[in-house]
Amino acid sequence: MTNFAAVSLPREDFDCLDSNVSASAVVRIPIRALRVAGSPRIAGENLEHVRVLADTPDELPPIIVHRQTMRVIDGVHRLRAAKLRNQHDIAVRFFDGDEADAFVLAVRANVSHGLPLSLAERKSAAKNIVLSHPHWSDRLIASVTGLSAKTIGEVRRGAKVPQPDSRIGQDGRVRPINSLEKRRQAMNLMRQNPNLSLRQVAKAAGISPETARAVRARLLRGEDPTIRKPSNVKKVEEKRQPQTRAPQPLPLPDRVTIMRYLRTDPTLRFSETGRTLLRLLDVHAMSNDRWALLVRNVPPHARGTIAQAALECARVWRTVAEQLERTAP
Question: What SMART domains does its record include (predicted)?
Answer without folding.
Answer: ParB
